[in-house]
Amino acid sequence: TIFLPVVGLVDPDKLKPGDLVGVNKDSYLILDTLPSEYDSRVKAMEVDEKPTEDYNDIGGLEKQIQELVEAIVLPMTHKERFQKLGIRPPKGVLLYGPPGTGKTLMARACAAQTNATFLKLAGPQLVQV
C-alpha cells in the first residue's frame, strides 16, 4: 500500500477509484493515467477511494500511531517548521507485520489526515521478472 503526498502531473480531481496510473519508480509521483486495457502488470497499482479512516478507528496501536504521525504527518503538514530547524524528515516508513494488525488501516488514516493520494500496491507484483 502506498499513499502519495504529491499527486504529480495528474489533476487529483480527475483520479477516481479503479484508475490505473503510471508512477515514477523513484519519486512515486503519478505521471499519467493509463487506459484500462494497459498491461496487467500495472494492475498492482490502482487508485483506491479517498480514505476516510481516522486514528480513532484503530485500537491498541497508540505508540505506532504517534511514531507514524511524527515521521510522516508532521513533516507534511508543518514542512516550514522542519525546514526552519534544519531537520530532514524521513523519505518514508515501512509498516510490517502479520496480516490483520492494522498496517493498512494506519496508512489509510495517515493518507486521510494529510489529504494524500492512497494507492493500493501488491508487494509481490513489484518483483520484476
Describe this protein with a few key phrases.
globular, single chain, 5 strands, ATP hydrolysis activity, alpha+beta, 3-stranded antiparallel sheet, 27% helix, 129 residues
Tell me what the structure shows.
Residues 93-127 form the ATPase AAA-type core domain. Residues 3-35 form the Proteasomal ATPase second OB domain. This is 26S protease regulatory subunit 6A-like protein. Keywords: ATP-binding, Hydrolase, Nucleotide-binding, Protease. GO terms for molecular function: ATP binding; ATP hydrolysis activity; peptidase activity. This protein is an alpha+beta fold. It has one domain (2-126). It is built from three helices and five strands; from the N terminus they run ββββαααβ. The chain has helices at residues 62-77, 79-85, 103-114; strands at 2-4, 20-23, 30-34, 45-47, 117-121. It has a three-stranded antiparallel sheet. A two-stranded antiparallel ribbon has the order 2-3. A hairpin with a 6-residue loop joins strand 2 (20-23) and strand 3. Helix 1 crosses helix 2 (79-85) and helix 1 runs parallel beside helix 3.
How does the SSE layout of this entry go?
Elements: E1 2-4, E2 20-23, E3 30-34, E4 45-47, H1 62-77, H2 79-85, H3 103-114, E5 117-121
Antiparallel strand pairs: 1-5, 2-3, 4-5
Helix pairs in contact: 1-2, 1-3
